[in-house]
Amino acid sequence: MTKPLETRGANSTEPVLKQALGAHWSLLAPVIQAHYDLSPFTDEQIHLKGNMDRVFHARVVSPLLPLAALAGAMVPYRGENVPVEVVNYSLQGKPSYFWHRTFFFPGKKPFEFQSSMICTGKGELTEYVGFGLGLRLSVEAKNGGVVERELGYVWRIGRRSIPMPINLLLGQSHVEEMPLSDIEYEMRWTITHPLFGETFAYSGRFNLIP
Fold first, then answer.
1. pLDDT tier at 70 (50, 70, 90 boundaries)?
2. Rounded CA gap, 73 and 129, in Å?
3. Which among 142, 82, 83, 87 has a CA at the least distance from the CA of 115?
4. C-alpha distances out from residue 42 to 21, 75, 190, Å
5. pLDDT digits 0-9 by tens, 14-36
6. In angstroms, rounded to a whole number, what is the distance separating the alpha carbons of residues 39 and 17?
7. Residue 182 phi/psi, 5° resolution?
8. pLDDT tens digit sequence for 82-130
9. DSSP labels, the chain
10. What mean pLDDT value characterizes the chain?
11. What is the pLDDT, as a whole number, of residue 172?
């Protein structure tokens, strides 16, 4: 069933994550706040460099990878100690928090992974990749970091969104970003299926670049 696309604080200039967390934003460590401290409707940028100690996908999801990679929804390679560069940015006239990730796998063309994120409710973000595919996530502050849990996939068509049962194929997403210092944090993203186990994962450490 389609429903109107909700955007909480559509005209807000507060950081997107702060819109979702409200007063709990103050519970985040400085490095996590700094990572998300971009004002919508501006031309601000944040640069990060990091290293993924593990990038993994299960063989059972291999047939889905070409389409998922085309949509920018999943990294199609496996690897360890993979350098990554990230540019987060905002744009004039846009309420979103944007991501541009570049993975440098040895012997392969750099893989670029782009997405955008908006606040779609109290304690909720939706991250969009290509073709209007979005992942709804509940968000909470925990131990100075941020924890995101999947609420389901949607397909955005204009101002409408259609629930998509993609999690029946892939499993449930879980994301954590936890502080290590004032300029470094660690992140972990896993997708776990009740039958197939872990279907996708990557984890690593990132530094904010002045």
1. low
2. 6
3. 87
4. 21, 29, 32
5. 999 999 999 999 999 999 999 99
6. 10
7. -70, -15
8. 999 999 999 999 999 999 999 999 999 999 989 999 999 999 999 999 8
9. --EEPP-TTTT--S-HHHHHHGGGGGGS-HHHHHHH---TTS--EEEEEEEEEEEEE-GGGGGGHHHHHHTT-S----BSSEEEEEEEE--TT---EEEEEEE--TTSPPEEEEEEEEEEETTEEEEE-GGGEEEEEEEEEETTEEEEEEEEEEEEETTEEEEE-THHHH-EEEEEEEESSSSEEEEEEEEEETTTEEEEEEEEEEEEE-
10. 91
11. 94
Do the beta carbons of residue 182 and residue 31 sit within 8 Å? yes
Query: Would you mind telling me the total number of residues written for the chain in this entry?
Result: 210
CB 87 within 8 A of CB 46: yes
Distance of alpha carbon 31 from alpha carbon 84, whole angstroms: 18
Q: Determine the straight-line distance between the first and last CA of the chain, rounded to whole angstroms.
A: 45
Nearest to 120 by CA among 90, 161, 92: 161
Closest CA to 151 of 187, 178, 121, 177: 121
CA 1/CA 6 separation, integer angstroms:
15
Domains of the chain in start order, with CATH, are 3-209 (2.40.128.20)
Write out pLDDT tens, residues 147-163.
999 999 998 887 788 88
Q: What is the pTM of this model?
A: 0.91
